[in-house]
Design a protein that fits this description.
The structure holds two protein chains of two kinds. Chain A contains eleven helices and twelve strands. By secondary structure, chain A is of the alpha/beta class. Chain A has an eight-stranded mixed beta sheet with strand order 6-7-8-3-9-10-12-11, sandwiched between helices. The radius of gyration of chain A is 21 Å and the shape is globular. By secondary structure, chain B is of the alpha/beta class. Chain B has two domains: about 220 residues, P-loop containing nucleotide triphosphate hydrolases (Rossmann fold), CATH 3.40.50.300; about 120 residues, P-loop containing nucleotide triphosphate hydrolases (Rossmann fold, 3-Layer(aba) Sandwich), CATH 3.40.50.300. Chain B is about 30% helix and about 20% strand. Chain B contains twelve helices and twelve strands. In chain B, strand 9 and strand 10 form a beta hairpin. In chain B, helix 4 crosses helix 5 and helix 7 packs parallel to helix 8. In chain B, about 50% of the residues are buried. The chains are: A alpha/beta, B alpha/beta. Chains A and B meet through helix 6, helix 7, helix 8, helix 9 and helix 10 of A and helix 8, helix 9, helix 10 and helix 11 of B.
Chain lengths: ~350, ~350
């Protein structure tokens, strides 16, 4: 199971992520779902993503974190046009995707691929590993059978799946190996942009670390741009250059990894970070947690104004009447809060 | 005397061909009021151990084939079903990972809570109801009186887990088995539930056997830790000792695999190569040896036992299952000096 050796490890683009050119620009993205209402024939509208602005710069890994139902996966799918956005724009390398004709979108999709969470559900059990990895080439290229096979074998080597698995079936593989096949499927068409939706969440820690390392070296080696959707904040911190924190369909804070983890400005980010356990009993004993009250409100009936205010210890009247805008500071750090924490030398992890 | 003393427990499950041994000679103890962790990855046998303790492994699916489970000195494995029912609830209670599957969806929360109070404590309807309200208050569920009439699906995941904790506490057990109770929950809700369990167990002096795969949760909750791998306990230590002086290469591997929230990005994780062995196809020697970078001939040949670590031979609470830490069958010691090179954490 050889990881791709990272000869290019030192050759990462040196410019800080926010100074690199923007590959993906998302503005006012909204996605609605229709949900049935008991006792009524008319469906209610559930706004799962409610006005998201994001830039993903070329060659960076942007982490998107948040709890179940915050809209992080929906955002990822809407960006790839796997779900139709209800509002907003998604520009990839200057091309607006939301209004693109189907044929041109299909061609575009070669350049943007997705890695799914569940390696058990995302691979067709009746196709061999080789067929699974070659499939995107059937759609996205006019390569001959021989070329496809060569490319599939090359990609298998890249992600650390031994070529002798080419004729075998997914059920013969372990979870970690299946996820490598999922990654190979995403990479085989040489995409520039990858949305990885919780790619390690279903894996045990020892296997998870193998896949995290693989993604890290692939990103460096191939110069990929990646959106990494996750709920494990420690994994996200380890892997990502910048992080966007989502809550109930909106982005509440975006910043580069270091400043977001060491000086979080949004109360929700602070609470989220302080809730993450740290595998060190001495550190844990010293920590003071900020434990949030209650649950996330229903997205069918979100709070007015700031969506976090019902659980926020700083909430005041204005928070109920005005939606706080995502505002940039000089450092590029953006926060959507009427009363953000002052940037100070505080440590977040609550220690 | 330990509150719970598990000795050489062995549990088999039926498999496609013959049977597999999911729990293979597991021994550990929990003292009164203590919080002990059983940690390991999927398939290591930690949940099967808990189910065996509770008498939930039943033929034909599986069978406890050996060992003793002494609870307050009495062996649960040889008890009659009626005696066992008396221990469950009042003596030992269990909380599961997924509260939706352990709550009855067609009965109200109130009905389910009062049932165990009436059965185990012999309370009348009115007294049981009053106690149920009190319990929901204890687990910090708002408006408990109205909530008694709700059905499980009307509760969020975190609230359901609170109800499960309320049920577990209802008969004031001496020991709670908590099996992956926060695994299905979001991290802010996990923090709420862990705080609740810690507070309540502390107030009532209830011992907790905490079963999890999450080393972060272990670090914040447990006083002592047992690490399981491939059906066996491979290391036992006080929590601080385990995290800062892990002795068994598997434990180093686990600790090297988890990124830490409080550490900036820097360097790669140190994963363990390969994957755990199939239960039906165990390696002959040390079960971790195929993945162990330090493995030598003896490790592949003969299985090590769980023994006190070298240099602490008189300390029965500090054990490892590793030839690197004990005299090998031929006599003498293996040299694993390079192991300190990749030891994950230094003591502060």
């Amino acid at each position: 199971m050889s990881e791709p050796t990272s000869a290019a490890a030192g050759a990462v683009a040196v410019a800080p992520p926010q100074d690199r050119p923007v590959l993906l620009r998302v503005r006012d993205l909204a996605v609605d779902f229709k949900v049935p209402v008991k006792g009524s024939l008319r469906a209610a509208r559930l706004r799962a993503v409610a006005g998201v602005d994001l830039d993903v710069h070329r060659g960076e890994i942007l982490g998107v974190v948040g709890e179940s139902g915050c809209g992080k996966s929906t955002t990822g799918r809407a960006i790839l046009q796997l779900l139709k956005p209800s509002e907003g724009t998604v520009a990839f390398d200057g091309v607006e995707l939301t209004t693109l004709a189907r044929g041109r979108m299909r061609a575009m999709r070669r350049r943007m691929q997705m890695i799914f969470q569940d390696p058990y559900a995302s691979l067709n059990p009746r196709m061999t590993i080789g067929e699974l990895i070659e499939e995107p080439l059937l759609v996205h290229s006019d390569a001959t059978a021989r070329e496809r096979r060569a490319k599939a074998l090359e990609t298998m080597r890249l992600v650390g799946v031994s070529p002798h698995w080419h004729e075998r079936y997914p059920h013969e593989l372990s979870g970690g190996q299946r996820q490598r096949v999922g990654i190979a499927r995403a990479l085989v068409s040489n995409p520039e942009f990858i949305v990885a939706d919780e790619p390690v969440s279903a894996l045990d820690v020892s296997i998870q670390a193998q896949i995290v390392n693989l993604l890290e070296s692939l990103q460096e080696e191939l110069g990929l741009t990646m959106m990494f959707i996750g709920h494990d904040l420690a994994v996200v911190r380890h892997l990502c250059d910048r992080i966007a924190v989502m809550y109930l369909g909106t982005v509440v804070e975006i910043g580069d990894c270091e400043s977001l983890y060491t000086r979080p400005r949004h109360p929700y980010t602070q609470a989220l970070l302080s809730a993450v356990p740290i595998p060190d009993p001495l550190v844990e004993a010293e920590r003071r947690r900020r434990i949030l009250k209650g649950d996330v409100p229903s997205p069918l009936n979100p709070p007015t104004g700031c969506r976090f205010r019902t659980r926020c210890w700083k909430a005041q009247e204005i928070c109920g009447t005005q939606v706080p805008a995502l505002t940039a500071e000089s450092t590029g750090h953006q926060v959507a809060c009427h009363f953000p924490e002052e940037p100070g030398p505080e440590s977040p992890a609550g220690t | 005397m330990a509150l719970l003393d598990v000795r050489d427990l062995r549990t088999e499950f039926r498999a496609a061909r013959g049977s597999v041994t999911a729990v293979d000679g597991v021994s550990f103890s929990v003292d009164a009021g203590e919080m002990v962790a059983l940690v390991g990855e999927s398939g290591c046998g930690k949940s099967a151990t808990a189910q065996s303790i509770m008498g939930l492994v039943v033929p034909p699916a599986g069978r406890v084939t050996g060992g003793q489970v002494l609870f307050q000195g009495q062996d649960l494995l040889t008890m009659k079903p009626r005696e066992l029912r008396a221990v469950r609830g009042k003596g030992i209670a269990m909380i599961f990972q997924d509260p939706m599957t352990s709550l009855n969806p067609v009965l109200t929360i109130g009905k389910q809570l009062t049932e165990s109070l009436r059965l185990h404590l012999g309370l009348g309807n009115r007294a049981a109801r009053a106690r149920a309200v009190e319990l929901l208050e204890t687990v910090r569920i708002p408006a408990p009186e109205t909530r008694l009439g709700s059905y499980p699906h009307q509760f969020s995941g975190g609230m359901r887990q609170r109800v499960m904790i309320a049920m577990a506490l209802s008969c004031e057990p001496r020991l709670i088995l908590a099996d992956e109770i926060t695994t299905a929950l979001d991290v802010t809700i996990q923090a709420q539930i862990l705080e609740l369990l810690r507070d309540l167990a502390g107030e009532t002096g209830t011992a907790v056997l905490f079963i999890t795969h999450d080393l972060g949760v272990v670090a914040g909750m447990a006083e002592r830790v047992n690490v399981m791998y491939a059906g066996q306990i491979v290391e036992r230590a006080d929590t601080v000792d385990l995290f800062h002086r892990p002795q068994m290469p598997y434990t180093w591997g686990l600790l090297g695999s988890v990124p830490r929230l409080d550490q900036a990005r820097g360097g790669r994780l140190r994963p363990i190569a390969g994957q755990p062995p199939e239960l039906s196809d165990m390696p002959p020697g040390c079960r971790f040896s195929p993945r162990c970078v330090h493995a030598q001939d003896v490790c592949r040949r003969s299985p090590p036992t769980l023994t006190p670590v070298r240099g602490a031979d008189d300390d029965p609470s500090r054990l490892t299952r590793c030839w690197g830490m004990q005299a090998v069958p031929e006599g003498g010691w293996l040299s694993l000096d390079d192991r300190y090179a990749d030891q994950p954490t230094e003591e502060k």
